Amino acid sequence: MAHGLGHHFLHQGNHCYLHSLWLDKQERYAEMFAAMLLVPPGVIDTRSGWKARMISQLFRVPPELAVVRCRVIGSCTK
Description:
Elements lengths: L1 H9 L9 H19 L13 H8 L3 H11 L5
Helix pairs in contact: 1-2, 2-4, 3-4
């Protein structure tokens, strides 16, 4: 649901006719939106050594989404 909201808030209109590279970019943005929505920035401190598995378990999000959130943070590991 959070991924779908990302598409709704970040993209206007129907872009299905566009090049797949554009669609990939939209998917990445929607995933980043979902990750930020479900694991808010103020909750995770970049200095605390978070791991994707810990984020997934603590916030009850899919492991793939936790990995995306880790990429946004830039300092956690799998």
